[in-house]
Structure formats: C-alpha cells, structure tokens
Design a protein that fits this description.
The chain is mostly helical. It is 55% helix and 3% strand. The radius of gyration is 21 Å and the shape is globular.
C-alpha cells in the first residue's frame, strides 16, 4: 500500500511539473501581440482591406478602432502583423498599409518607427 501512495505522489508531482512547464511555455510564447496569435491579429484587421488599396481611400472607423487596439497591446504588434505571412499572401501593399495609423489620426502611434523597410509616418 505504501508503494501505491508513493506512486500517486510521484504522479501528482509529474502532473504538476508538466502543467507548470506548459504555463511557462505559454508565457514565454507571448509575442509582439501578447497572447493573441499574429494571424488572429491580422484577421482582426479585415475592416482595413479597402484602405490598403490606396493612400487616398477612406479608412473605415472600424479599421481605425482595430488598429488603435493593436497599438494598445503593443506598438510592435501592428508591425508584426504587417510583416506576417498572412498579410503577404493577401497581397497587401505595405507601403500603403503603414499609412493607416496616420490616416486614422492615432495620436499614440510611434512616428518614425521602422517596420521592415517601411517607416511609420
């Protein structure tokens, strides 16, 4: 019987260690967009699709609110999204997309920040 409780205790310790390891990995895996995966953050910007076609296109208010929310998570988040494979596959013109925060009049945007070969206006 003592061996059963020792086995149970060992199993509990192993489960605790595995759960702790999984939690630590999740925390360490938090990227530029926090716990939001880059592709999910990119998909959230779908209201911005028309604004990425032309620098003179009107930026929908829903787009501006999504971009502003990404800046609140982290200024690096928008850059990570713009440089993501999903955005490249969608054929988004980064030279136009990078102008959206300015066109939305987002005050807390990091003007002059480099994003790949582009600079945030």
């Amino acid at each position: 019987m003592a061996s059963n409780s020792a086995t149970s205790a060992a199993a509990a310790i192993i489960i605790f260690l595995l759960a702790s390891h999984a939690y630590i990995q999740e925390v360490l895996a938090a990227g530029e967009c926090g716990k939001t995966p880059i592709n999910a953050a990119a998909a959230s910007l779908s209201p911005c699709a028309t604004a990425t076609q032309s620098k003179t296109a009107m930026v929908p208010p829903a787009c501006c609110s999504k971009v502003s929310a990404l800046f609140k998570i982290s200024p690096k988040c928008l850059c990570a999204v713009l440089l993501s494979p999903l955005v490249k596959q969608a054929g988004i013109n980064l030279g136009i997309a990078i102008t959206i925060p300015k066109r939305c009049n987002i005050r807390n945007r990091p003007v002059g920040k480099k994003c790949g070969s582009y600079t945030l206006p």
